[in-house]
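Our preliminary data section would be incomplete without showing what the modeling component actually yields. Below, a chain of 345 amino acids is followed by its predicted structure, encoded as tokens that our downstream tools consume directly.
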Amino acid sequence: MNIAKRREVRFFLILLAAGAAGMILKEAVAPGIVRRRVISAVRDNCKTCELSLGRVRVSLLPPALSARDIRFSGGTPNATVVKAEAERVYVPLSLFQLFKNRFRLGRIEIEKPAVTVTEGDLYGPASAEGGGKGPDLEIKSIKIKNGSFVYIREYPGRKGILAVSRINASAGPIGSSARLRGEKAAGTATGLLEESGKFRLEVGAMIFAKVPDIDVKMEIAGQELASLDRFFKPSDGIELKGTILEGRSAVVIRGARLSATSFVRYRGLSVKIKKYKERGALSAFFQNFFASVTMGKQNADGADYDRQETAELERKPKETLISFALRGMKESAMKVSAKAAKADK
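Predicted structure:
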């Protein structure tokens, strides 16, 4: 073999070895580094949080990370606990950013996430105790496909459950960078409430504001009220029947104050009340205003009813923002029915 041939063979072998080393780095070494780095970053910024990742893959063209079988948990038992898992998460991210404290991400895609939020009577701090300064983060957008959400409110000896399925949502831009920190993050979601009502949700929030600054809009149609009993009965001691044909609610939270306006068209409203030692806000509302006259009532037909009402509320000391917003929606919606019931007397 002449010298030129030997050089060609040597060069080819070098390329082959470099390619093999690159593949080993990409497929074996890099995923392990990524997994450890991400898990470490979560623990450094949230002392009560735990994250586990299944298979991690690194893509070079385009630069991105993807992971399967993701599981996350965090929070304070009996106050607020969040558990989440997802089938797959795709994150456009340069591998070099994992070794910095500055992240610029593209559109994150999350497939089949399942999130459960459990709230009790203890007060939980707004931020995780012991968390350090978070990374300089910017996310262009977040896309959620076919997700689910369960909200559990615990009481002594009972708990109320509210579930949403078939969630498709998007949000962004969002981040902790100087550019985005003072901007309101916005998101929208559609889904099915308790396997009955189709809903659309819009949320805007100043995530890093010192006091709550949140706007919520929700639309719902075709909701069978009986399907909500596993939330209302343990939480407020009431059983509902009937159908919400059309409902719209807008909630504005500024600090400890809330203003909620609801428009509701319903048919066949029926209410039963079970008395607990402590009355839930909705149970007390029914008992004090109109529970005895609502059986079989409706405001779906004719033009004799004002279908819109507003509730002004003050946040309770241990009340979470989710509970606060739900209470505002409930009370403003019930005022619509109260006016209809009084008009029928």
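The chain is about 25% helix and 45% strand. Residues 3-45 form the longest helix (43 residues). Preliminary results of this kind motivate Aim 1 of the renewal.
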